[in-house]
Design brief:
The protein has 693 residues and is mainly beta. It has four helices and 39 strands. Strand 16 and strand 17 form a beta hairpin. It has a 22-stranded antiparallel barrel. Strands 6-5-8-7 form a four-stranded mixed β-sheet, with no helix packed on it. It is globular, with a radius of gyration of 26 Å.
Length: 693
Amino acid sequence: MFKVTNAKLSLALSPIVICMALPSYAAEADQTSMEHIEVFYKRSSVTSEITENTEKLVTMPGAMGDPLRAVFSLPGVVAAGGSMSEPAVRGSSPSDNIFEVDFMPAGYIFHDFGSSIFNRHIIQDFQLYSAGYGTGYSNATGAVFDVTLRNPKYQPITTTLDFTMFNAGIFVEGQATDNTAFYFSARKSTLPLFFSKGEELEDDDGKPSGVTINEAPDDHDYQGKWLWDINNNNTLTFNFTGAEDSAAAGFNERAQLAQKTPEFQGDAVYIREFNSQNLLWDHYNKRFHLRVAVGALDHSGRLEYGKRASLSNGFFEQESEKQFTYKAQLNYRINKQHRLITDMAYFDNETTYSYDSFQYLCTELDPDCDIKKGERITGKQKFGVDSGFIGLTHVWQIGDKWQTELGGQWQHNKYTDESFVSPRLAINYYVSDQSTISAKLGRYNRMQDIDHIAPDVGNPNLKSQTANHATLGFSQQLDNEWSWSLEGYYKTMTNLPLAIDVHAQDAHLLYSNQVEGQAYGLDLLINKNKTDNWYGWISLSYAKSERTDTRHHITKDYYADTPVVFNAVLQYEINELWQGGFNFTARSGQAYTPIVGVRENPDFDNRFLPVYGDAFSERHDLYHRLDIRFERKTEVFGLDGKLILELMNAYGQKNVSSIDLDYDRVKSVNDLYIEEEEDDFEIRPSIGFSVTF
C-alpha cells in the first residue's frame, strides 16, 4: 500500500523535474653504480583510486557524472515505468534487487528525481550482478548492486566544489595523521531554485494544471569515510551515509490526480530519508582475508495527502525501520588449487508501519492501483523482521582449464518463520588465455514486501518469494583492447503475490501466493578500452518476461518487459583539454494496458474512472534518445577546474511512458479521451563546473 501511493506524488511532480591503482614509489641512487629502489605503500592504497570501468560510467553522456545512473546503458537493465524509475534487471522486479555499499546494506541508492546518492569522486568500483551470484548476498531474487567506495588518499587536504544545473556539492579529502586519512562529501539539489512557493504549474498545453508548489522537489545526500591503517595487516574504517528526498504540493479540483482520486485533493507532503553508520575491520594475512563489520541503519518514508479545510487531518502512510547489521566474511586460501569463502550476517530489524488511509489491494499484475481502492483503514503496527544467513563457497582451480565455485546458503526469516537452503554453482572453462565459457546456477529467496504480509493490510501467512537462476555465457579478449561477451539467462519465479478479488470466497485473506513468473533473454556486449584516444561499448539485449496468475490461469507480459534494448556509447579525447562523446539508446516500447472505456466513479458524483482492456497487452512506440557530453579542463585563479557541457535528448524525441484519461475533457461515460505522459523533456541542456583547491 505504501509503495503504491508514494508513486502518485512522484508521478504527479515528475514532469517538473528532471582495476587497481599502482602503489607510489620513491627512488634514489646509492654511492655505487647499482640503483636501489625503495617501495613505500599502504595496503589501503589499492582501493584509493577509481577503477577504469567506473571511470567510463562517470564520464558517460546523459548520466551527468553519476556512474550509477549510467547502469541503464548496461545489458539487461531497463527503467521500469520511466526514465526516473529504479532499475529492473533481466525480467525481475525493482523490488527484487538489493543494494550494498562497502559490504553493508543501504537504505536506497537512487534519489526520486533522477540521480544516485553518491558523489562521483568517491565511487571506487561498481559491480552489477544480474543473475547467478554467490552465497554472500541474501534476501534477493533479482540483481545485486554492489558499490565500493574508495578509500581516502594520503595527501594534503584538498577541497573540490561542483556546480551543475541540478545539484551543487563539496568534497574534502586528505591525510589527518601518518596512519589516518578521511574524506567527506555533501550535495544539495538545486531544483528549488527553479520554482517559487505558491507557483501553479502549467500542463503541456500551457494551461493551469491545478498543482501548486508548496515545497519544491528537493534532495540532499552526504557520505564520509575515515580510515586508520593500523599496520601492514590491519585497517579500521568508519563510514557514514545519508540521503533525503522531499516534495510538497497542493492539488485543487482541476488537478488530474484529484479528478481521478478525489481523496488527493488538498495538500500533500512526501519525504523519505535514511542514515547509516558502519565500522569495518579488515585483517590481511598471507593465507586469508577477514572482514568484520557492524552497522546501524535508520530508514523511513512518509506520505501525507488530502489535507484541506473540510478534512483537516487528511490521510497518511508511514513506514520506518531501524536495523543493526552484524556481518563477517573469511576468504581462506588452502593452497593454490583450493579456497574457502565463508559469509555470515545477522540483521536485527524493527519495522513500524502506521497509516490512516485507504486499503489498496494491488500488486504488479494490476495495471492501475488507483482504481482498486477499498475501505478506509487506520492502525499502527510494529514488527520484528530479523533475518540471518550463513554461506559457504569452495573455489577449486582444476588445472589450467577449469574453475568451479560450489556453495550453499542457509537463511532464516524470523517474521515468517521460514528457513531456506539455497545451492549455488559457477563453472568457468578457459578455452584459451583469451576465451572463457561460464555457467551459473542458483536458487534464491526474499521475504514479501511488508505491506503484503502485515496484519490487517496484508496476509501474514504469505510464503516468501523464490527464484531459480541459470546463465550460460562466452567472453573473449581481442587485440587492441577489444573484447566481447554473450550471455543467455533463464529465471523462474514462484510464490509471487496475487491481490484476491473482493468478490472471491477467500477475499478476507487479501493476498495469496498464486503468481508465477519466468524471464529469459540474451545479452551481447562489445567493449573497447581506451586506446588511440577513445573508448566505448555497444550492448544489445533480447528479453522476455511474463507473469502467470495461477488462480485464473492467465499469463501476461510483465509490465517492465522490454524485448529489445540497444545502447551505443563513445568517448573521444580530442586533445589535452577537451574530450567528448555520445550515448544513444533505443528500446522497445514497454507494455501497457489500453483504456477501452469510461465508467462513473462509484464514490463521487460527476467523477469518472477508466475501463481497462487486457492487462499489458499493448506497447508504446519505440523509445530512442541521444545524449551528448563535452568536458574541458581549465584553470580558475590558478586552481584546477573542469567545465562540463551536456545535452540530453539532443534531438527532442517525444517518448511516451504512460497513458490515462484526459479528465478535463471527460464529462460522461461516452467521452473516451486519452492523454499521453512523456518520459523525458524534449531537450535538456546542462552546464556544470568543478574546481579543486
